[in-house]
Amino acid sequence: MGRKNKSRYHKSLHQLVHERLQSMQAFGQSKRAAVTAGEDKGKIFSFATYQTYKKHIGYYLRWLHIEHPEVTTLKAARRYAREWLELRADQRDDKGRYLSSWTIQTEAAALNKLFQIDRADPDRFIPPVRRREDIMRSRMTTERDKHFSVTNNAELINFCCGTGCRRNVLEKLEGRDLWTREQMEKELSFAVKHSPSDRNKADEKALEDALDTFPEETVFIHHRSDKGGRSRYAPIVGPYKEQIIARMRDRNPHEKVWEHVHSAADVHGYRAEYATRVYRQYARKYDDIPYDRVYPGSGIRYKSEVYYCRKDERGRRLDKKAMKKASKALGHNRICVIADHYLRGL
Predict the structure, then answer these.
(1) Contact between 9 and 18 (Cβ < 8 Å)
(2) Which string of DSSP letters, residue by residue, matches 230-287?
(3) pTM of the model
(4) Rounded Cα distance, 85 and 104, in Å
(5) pLDDT at residue 8 above 70?
């Protein structure tokens, strides 16, 4: 039976939030085009981002239900966003540690998106500054690590450190995803002549990037539908290269390379090892990088291809060319991401 008096029916706050988040979905659309057109404010372009925002907004709604049960509208819920974020910034766990600044940044971004809080808004919460020394992910032993045997999963670890796969790609990787340089050149030549669609052009770009960025490499992994739905080809590197190739070739084209990927496997940490291997393979010594620019006015020469690290890494110098290669191999476009989050032990 339906409601007897629909005029008295009001949607709950959870329903209102759900509907607004649903209306923001723009999966598959070009974020770059939307930003250029100034139409990105009320849109969420990544399903993963949508899921993350939804989770953290859920935390906020549970807090509201306990602390401010009278709140039933989005307008009223917006009023307490800053208060909750400030509480989260001051919150400590049972070991006396503050929440990660990355977590606070994410929660602030989620609420700013939900309530459309502009950067110029005086009530907008300013999250704590992110510092490298605060990063805990893949930097220390956790409770989950006790249930993961490095010895029993040695081949998986070696595979990840040599390919740089994200977990979502690793779990669906198939035998057909091993590509030789000859295959890639042939595929690119065919695509240029016979592929008018935008999707095929994106594949062409991925092939071109890999072939141009890694002219010395002969064997690649095709990362299908990687982060953001993008495709990329990354070289296999490291001491276990032949073992990785053998495992890939031992699988039928549509047979999974890994039937099961242990949930406690530190895939993000293995990506960092992969990035460091790629960087080391191509990095030049500081003295081998030429002086190629002159500061206007002073006439002092400098090396534009040297990246100078900042903050706690101040004084460390990296080769920008090698950083760009590592960045491309990982599926990123900014070398600062590689410097801040992936390169280790240099």
Answers:
(1) no
(2) --EEEE--STTHHHHHHHHHTS-TTSBS-S---TT--HHHHHHHHHHHHHHHHPPPGG
(3) 0.65
(4) 7
(5) no
